[in-house]
């Protein structure tokens, strides 16, 4: 029966196999969940305003050390999301990060994003953090932080980005460690 199933049972076996496979996949995802490592603190806002610092627990420093893997610098970025301020600490090798703001006079399409990715690949640009796409009135802004390895002159890169349909301005800012 196993080596030579009749065609009558074949579709039933395939259906049951598919169901079993799906259930095993879901079970695997449940069992392979990684532990979530979060650390919370509650402080008075007046204390925060006065000190202008946030202390990071030793366990978080230890975890960050494990993430660095020979990366000697940290890129720290913050942004407002709803009613909160989000803070990211990203280990990087570079001593310099460049913030690119690409301003569009049109809606961003998947084709435009593909053009940007293609240019980034051509110049071997390493994406560190993307603040995403922000729409303001009649403009869209794509804000991204990148490592520009082996690029001393930004003009050729900017000129290629300007060739993308809808680009009206490019702002750059260099951040150094």
Shape: extended
Strand content: 25-35%
> How many individual β-strands?
6
What is the level-2 CATH architecture name of one domain? Answer: 2-Layer Sandwich
CATH topology of one domain: Alpha-Beta Plaits
Low-confidence stretches: none
- Helix residue percentage: 25-40%
Task: Report how far apart the termini are.
Answer: 69 Å
Helices, by number, come to 5
The CATH homology group name of one domain: ACT domain
Q: SSE order, as H and E?
A: HHHEEEHEEHE
Question: What is the mean predicted local confidence, pLDDT?
Answer: 85
Taking the sheet with the most strands, its summary is:
4 strands, antiparallel
CATH class of one domain: Alpha Beta
Rg measurement, Å: 24 Å
Give, in spatial order, the strands making up the sheet with the most strands. Answer: 4-5-3-6
InterPro entries: ACT_dom
Organism: marine sediment metagenome
Protein name: ACT domain-containing protein
